[in-house]
Structure formats: C-alpha cells, structure tokens
Design goal:
Elements (H helix, E strand, L loop, with lengths): L2 E10 L5 E9 L2 E7 H15 L17 H20 L7 H14 L6 E7 L5 E7 L4 H11 L10 E8 L5 E6 L6 H8 L4 E7 L7 H4 L3 H16 L7 H12 L3 H8 L8 E2 L3 E3 L6 E8 L2 E7 L5 E7 L3 E10 L7 E10 L5 E7 L3 H17 L4 H5 L5 E2 L9
Parallel strand pairs: 4-8, 14-17
Antiparallel strand pairs: 1-2, 2-3, 4-5, 6-7, 6-8, 9-11, 10-11, 10-16, 11-12, 12-13, 14-15, 15-16
Helix pairs in contact: 7-9, 8-9
Length: 400
C-alpha cells in the first residue's frame, strides 16, 4: 500500500486550541484525515497486538511550539511510519489494521452506516445493482456481485473492484484498484465526481491466467466483457486475419473461442493508460503507455511527429519511484510522476520518467508484474518481502 501525507491543515478543538490534521492519501487519492493523537492511538493498538519489536518507530510527542520546519519533519516522519506499516506483510493484511483504516475512512467523510444500493459496472458497460451497506468492504461487495453473475467463490481472487472515470464518448479511465478493505461506497462518494464509477476487472496482467477461468461461465462472462471493450477501444492490436476471426466468433456468440483467439493478439491483457508525456528519448514527448506481460510498452511521438515504439522489460528495471507535486496547497489534488532506472541494450543505466496522473496505478501494475514473475520462481515468499515502491526519494529495492 502506497501511503502519502501530501498536505496538512489546521483545526481547533472545543477549547480553541489548534492542532494539525494530516491528509492521508492511499495510492494517490485522499483516503482519510487524522490528527497526530489519532495516529498515536493507532500505533499503541498495533504495538499491543504485534509487540514493540514488530511495529515501526513512531515519532514521539513534541511538547514545544512547532516551527514550520519541525511541522514538516513531523509530516515526513508520519508518512514514513505509514509507509513502513503498509509494506509489512503481517501488519498490512491484519484485521486490526484494516479495521482501523476502514473506520478512519468512514469517519473522515462522515458516512453513516446504512443500507444502500451501489452500482457496479462490468467493462462492457453492463450495470449491476448491488444491495449493500455503506460500511461494506470491497471484498464483500465483490462477493455479492459474483453471486449475481454466477462467478464461483474459488475464482474471486482473479478479479477486483476498480475506481474508474467514465468519458462522454463511452470509454473510461482506470483510476485505481481498490484494496480489499476499502469501502467502495465511501471511496466513490469522496470523489465528488458524477463520472466516477466502481467496476469489476481482472486483477492480474498475465494472460495465461485466463485459462483458469475458461471453465467458469461467470469467469468467461467477465473476461469476455473486458476483452470486447478493449478490442473496440483499440487497447489491443490484432492483425487483419485476427480481426476477421474474432468477428466470426463474436457474431456466433462463441465467447470461449473468442477469448482463446484474442489471447494471441498483441497487447491483449495489458492496462492502457491515458495520453501522457515522457522524457525518453527526448524531453516532453507525448506517449501512450501500456503495461502487461513483462513490459512497459510506449508509443512515443517524437518532435519529428514520427512514432517510436519502445519496450522496457520489467526484469531490466532496477528500481522505481513516484515523485509528487501538490497543484495547490489548499487542494487535495496531486501531480505525480513515475521514474524508473532502466538497463538498456548496451547495459547502461538511465532514469526514465513518465508524467501521468495515473502514476500510482502504473506503479501498482509494475508491482503486480514483478509478483507474477516471482510466483514462478523459487523463494517467492522470501523475495516478496523485500519488494516495493518508495515515495519522495526513498527507494525500496526490488527483489533480485
């Protein structure tokens, strides 16, 4: 989990005393707002549960009047604490920690627990109406949606809920993948954007994983809805012969055969990002970025208007980081960029930066490719402990 504390604001208690409120972002989106005292209580609960030796150092109380530099140091210390807790494989998935996060999200946006109907999209635009509660987690809502589309529980791990933004032309942009503990109703409401939606999509990038789902009618339905959308929107690049074959299967309603055929198409199963810019091979080059299989694929428009196709293999990336800029101090919008250190064909190392508001999603996709690659190697459990991403110049080393 990628936590940042990008901003702070001032608050006053009932006696008029001032205190600092920390805006905590999860993967680029405001998740909750907490005071130091609330975070301190979190820390105490975690220490009682896990023991002092297993919980990261928490910045101590400061009884002096804080200067601006002291306040900034406190912000960075709390951010580092959250990052370390979020990357701990035991703490981050524990019920005590996820419950603290869920309660903080709900309390921040003052959403009372009540029955509600949540609209969940499939990738092809079909809408499911889910009878749920505002306090239900993404994991619970995915279970309810799976029952509607007859997806067996054993296949739930292959899918996840995503926050997306619909476009007027009928397409959508993927904003983030919701963690299992997040409250989709609250996450959606907090965006304050009528175009934001919750969607079910595949949770993996390896197209070979499709084979597991082809025996499930619900799995085939979900795969087919996403595959047809991505084909229509140009996310995949079939040859003329492949197009004709796919059209034949689609017209005949042969979904399984369609999926087996499209699995051979270039860029099938990749996540495509919105138009952005990068500094490769020159600064300020417009680019279309796709991530999937074992690569970051970029279609880059050069100053000459020619298109350069570049493939950056994930196993040649030594590390990567996200840098953040706050657009306006009083707003919660962030301007992220993702940089990765890459070994080129001449074995030279260079930093490449992609400037996109989807930087956190891009980072997560790289992370998932690494994990998928590690799953097929010995020592996956041990190596995965050392894998991660660092914000603001603190790089977490990728597992070797």
């Amino acid at each position: 989990m990628q936590f940042t504390i990008a901003q702070t604001e001032q608050g006053r208690d009932s006696l008029g005393s001032r205190y600092v409120i920390y805006g905590i972002h999860l993967e680029g989106f405001l998740f909750c707002k907490l005071r130091y005292s609330q975070l301190h209580r979190w820390n105490e609960k975690l220490r009682r549960y896990f023991g002092n030796n297993f919980v990261p150092h928490f910045p101590p109380k400061n009884y002096l009047v804080q200067t601006e530099s002291m306040a900034e140091e406190r912000r960075l210390q709390l951010q580092q604490y959250l990052q370390k807790v979020g990357e701990d494989p035991a703490i981050s998935v524990s019920e005590i920690f996820t419950t603290l996060l869920k309660n903080a999200q709900q309390e921040t946006f003052k959403i009372c627990a009540r029955a509600a109907v949540l609209e969940v999209l499939l990738a092809n635009g079909k809408r499911l109406l889910i009878d749920t509660h505002t306090s239900d987690s993404a994991e619970r809502i995915l279970e309810i949606a799976a029952q509607q589309i007859e997806l067996s529980r054993q296949f739930l791990g292959h899918f996840a809920l995503y926050l997306v933004c619909e476009h007027p032309n009928g397409g959508y942009s993927v904003l983030k993948k919701l963690n299992a503990f997040e409250l989709p109703f609250v996450s959606l409401w907090s965006q304050q954007d009528d175009n934001c939606r919750i969607m079910i999509r595949k949770s993996y990038l390896d197209p070979l994983e499709d084979e597991v789902l082809l025996e499930s009618s619900g799995g085939v339905a979900l795969l087919y809805s996403q595959a047809t959308y991505e084909l229509e929107r140009g996310w995949t690049s079939p040859t003329r012969e492949q197009c004709q074959q796919l059209e034949t299967f689609q017209d005949a309603g042969k979904k399984r055969e369609f999926l087996e055929s499209i699995a051979k198409v270039k860029f099938y199963g990749y996540m495509q990002f919105e138009a952005c810019t990068c500094d490769y091979p020159e600064p300020n080059c417009p680019a279309i970025v796709r991530v999937g299989s074992d690569e970051i694929s970029c279609s880059i428009q050069l100053p000459s208007n020619h298109i350069k196709e570049a493939s950056f293999k994930v196993n040649r990336i030594r590390c990567w980081k996200i840098n953040l800029q706050i657009l306006l101090q009083e707003e919660t919008e962030l301007k992220p960029e993702l940089s990765f250190e890459y070994q080129d064909s001449q074995d030279a190392w260079r930093w490449i930066t992609i400037y996109t508001y989807q930087a956190f999603l891009l980072s997560r996709c790289i992370q998932e490719i690494v994990i998928e690659q590690l799953k097929i190697t010995e020592g996956y459990t041990e190596m995965s402990k050392h894998f991660g991403v660092v914000l603001q110049k603190k790089l977490f080393k990728k597992a070797k």
